[in-house]
Amino acid sequence: MIADIAEKVYAGERLALDDARRLYAHHNLAELGMLAHWVRLQKHPEQVVTYNVGRNINYTNVCWVKCDFCAFYRPPGSSEGYVLPNEQIFAKIDELVAFGGDELKSCEILMQGGLNPKLRLDYYEQLLSAIRDRYPQVQLHCLSATEIIYIAHLSRLPLDETIRRLRGAGLDSIPGAGAEILNDEVRDIIGFRKDRTEEWLEVHRVAHELGMPTTATMMYGHVETVEHRLEHLDRLRQLQDERGGFTAFITWNFQPDHTDLAADESRWNGAKATGYDHLRTVAVARLFLDNIPSLQASWVTQGPKIAQVSLRYGVNDFGSTMLEENVVSAAGTSHTNEMSLDAMERLIRDAGFTPRRRNTRYEPVASPCRIDALQEAAHL
Amino acid sequence: MIYDDLIGRADLADIHDKVLAGQRLSLDDGLRLYACDELPVLGYLANIVRERKNGDTAYYVRNQHINYTNICNKLCKFCSFYVKPKDERGYVLSPEQVAARVAEYDQAPITEIHMVGGVNPKLPYQYYLDVLQAMKQARPDAHLKAFTMIEIAQIQRIAKKPLEEIFADMKAAGLESLPGGGAEVFSDRVQGDLFWTKADSEEWLEIAQAAHRAGLPSNATMLYGHIENTEEKVYHLVRLREVQDETDGFLCYIPLSFHPERTELEDLPGPTGCLDLKEIAVGRLMLDNFPHVKTFWIMNTIEISQTALWYGADDIDGTVMDYEITRKSFTETQQRLTQAELLQRIVEAGRQPLERDSLYNIVADTSTLLAAAG
User: Fold this and answer.
1) Are the beta carbons of B356 and B60 closer than 8 angstroms?
2) Contact between residue B80 and residue B329 where contact means Cβ atoms under 8 Å apart
3) How far apart are CA A374 and CA A361, in angstroms?
4) What span, in angstroms and rounded, lies between the C-alpha atoms of A315 and A192?
5) Which of A211, A277, A348, B170 could form a disulfide with A273 if both were Cys (CB 3.0 to 4.6 A apart)?
6) CB-CB under 8 Å, A346 with B40
7) CB contact under 8 A, A351 and B274
């Protein structure tokens, strides 16, 4: 049924949108896995799975956007709202670098937060430059497109100027969060105050033009159809054809607990997306996104079993050790907040690959992690 | 072709040829399959056998699990369910209590009662027959599947009778088949470390053979993901296959994913998702004379079990209503799945769900259910 597509993959030809549509409808998961692995082998011939030592820091949970798929935010004025003081942010980074070592730009800080109307560009410039000056070991992979648009809006600056100034303060790269599904009808249903498809794409386009790498994501399994997912992948591939600034694609399914979207039967059918759906989604993404170098696993949402199996479905990177994750955890993902390095390396080895540490730019990091240091820090 | 190329790179081209020709795989082939990390290649091969034997069907059964006692003198290191004799947490359900458990579900559309328990040295022979009779009276239309080979070994010890007579008594009391538990891994080394007091592998197989000869079919299991090695697993599969050649009494093979939590082996990390799928696939490929391979989602997780429908499994065990052995050790795992949820999973994976009875007769055409579910 997909013999012609298999031939295209074998010949290294680009797949058409209709090919991806047919792959999605092709139930034989083992065949999808083999085809996706073939593409992975062309891009990453070594039997290696990389991972990153990193930490999520959610500097604020105050957000006026109130996306219905989110259980993390608190509206402005809420007594449960917070902005982390710099000292707390530094303490978190101290733990990370104690664990991750001193190699330049070897540890990733993924710092993201809500759209907090009190925080202007100067707050971000001061925070980023303070971190940069204090921690040369740290790669600042911070602020999703949504946050950058909002910062630009509050500061009445164009996007390129905003990103330039953030870069000047130390921003290294931009995470791909907030892409959700790049279709405005879907965005209207799940989070109508959020940025539009074109706006999300524009932030990444501008970043790529400035030579700043970013990642791309997709959150599926809510109100979208397979057609919307395909449209999403197509938009990403088109943008990547322009400058090639995406380093990786990461996809996960909507985590429903404690979200307004899940509580609304008129919008959500109550069926959380399955492991089967995840494996075929990463496989189709690997096959279709021929111009994005890496695919990351999402163990926080998929759990260790399906995340490991995804390494045989086109995924070549296990993502971050993620010493702290607050956002999907608030939506009830049952998987633990952090994965020990030992557990991560075992999963990679057990899948038949050699684990290798990398930095945010996917360059190898030679220095070993100091697990003892992390344990000591945890006991302090 | 890209698939052939990938199979060749995995060094399994000759095994692929054998599978296509329907030839039996050797012990050495089994070792090579286990050594292969190319998971989708294993799924691809196993799916050839799966579809040849069972087409697109994904069977499920609706049953009730009863554990008549948790008292056990076997002290297996991998078990979190048992308590030692004299432990105050120990219980034994009387025949009346077992019948009451069955009656609790008499409105539920179950077709099978699955009953196993610990090896409780205090229970007399008559107890086992009374329990069977009580269950059969409480629910005459449900198929009675009870007692692992390990329990039968204990029953024989107290009955002091030949197995043929015991099985005749039990059939008269209502027993219709045996689950396949207690096989663990057929290895003296593993047994010596983990379950030294239990029946050894040859005794397990002899009891299974005797049951099959008495007209009682059974399943067969293998507990993996602890201290066993690949050679021991392949030997296990080959011995099951040999016995099946003689008796044709095994209905189904069920690889069981070890859960270390709250056992004496809790420092072990437990099997990974890749291993779970590999066990399904290798089992399907090696056990060419077993009609069915089951994925037990309570242990595999429903995510892996749904995926396993493309790795050789044609049976996804069921809407389990009450299952205490695993509930003890992993409380986080979802313990129940509604029939609608299970059917959605099967359909999403592109398989045809069919409700079966214990002997794989079709109970219900699920297409009407599916239509009703939209």
Assistant:
1) yes
2) yes
3) 24
4) 31
5) A277
6) no
7) yes
Q: What is the pLDDT of residue B194?
A: 87
Residue A180 phi/psi, 5-degree rounding, is 50, -110
Q: Does B306 touch chain A (CB under 8 A)?
A: yes
Q: In this structure, what is the dihedral angle of CA atoms B147, B152, B153, B156, given to the nearest 10 degrees?
A: 150
- Look at residues B321, B256, B319, B247 and name the one whose alpha carbon lies nearest to residue B283: B256
ipTM over 0.90: yes
* Mutation to test the A interface, candidates B4, B5, B6, B39, most A Cβ within 10 Å: B39
Question: What is the SS3 assignment for B136?
Answer: helix
Residue B301 and residue A303: Cβ atoms within 8 Å?
yes
Tokens of residue B13, six digits:
């081209």
Predicted pLDDT at A269: 83
Do B39 and A312 make contact, defined as CB atoms within 8 angstroms?
A: yes
Whether residues A276 and B345 touch (CB distance < 8 A) is answered with: yes
pLDDT at B237 over 70: yes
* Interchain CB contact of A303 with B (< 8 Å): yes
Band (A380; pLDDT cuts 50, 70, 90): very low
Cβ–Cβ below 8 Å for B6 and A33 = no
| Selected residue of B5, B274, B300, B330 to mutate for chain A interface (largest A Cβ count, 10 A) | B274
Cα separations in angstroms, B221 against A201, B186, B255, B334: 52, 10, 5, 22
Q: Is A293 on the interface with B (CB under 8 A)?
A: no
Query: How does pLDDT run across B301-352, given as a tens digit for each residue?
Result: 999 999 999 999 999 986 554 444 444 443 344 556 778 888 899 999 999 9
- Number of helices and strands in chain A (H, E): 16, 9
DSSP states along A139-153: EEEE--HHHHHHHHH
Contact B275 A271 (CB under 8 A): no
Q: What is the mean pLDDT of residues B183-195?
A: 89
**For chain B, percent helix, then strand, then coil, each to nearest 5?**
45, 15, 40
* Interface check B268 vs A, CB under 8 A: no
The rounded distance, in Å, linking the Cα atoms of A190 and A174 is 23
For residues B95 and B98, what is the distance between their CA atoms, to the nearest angstrom? 5
CB contacts of A253 in chain B (<8 Å) are none
Cα nearest neighbour of A275 on chain B? B303
Which sign, positive or negative, has the C-alpha torsion B50, B53, B55, B61? negative
Sign, CA torsion A221/A225/A226/A227: negative
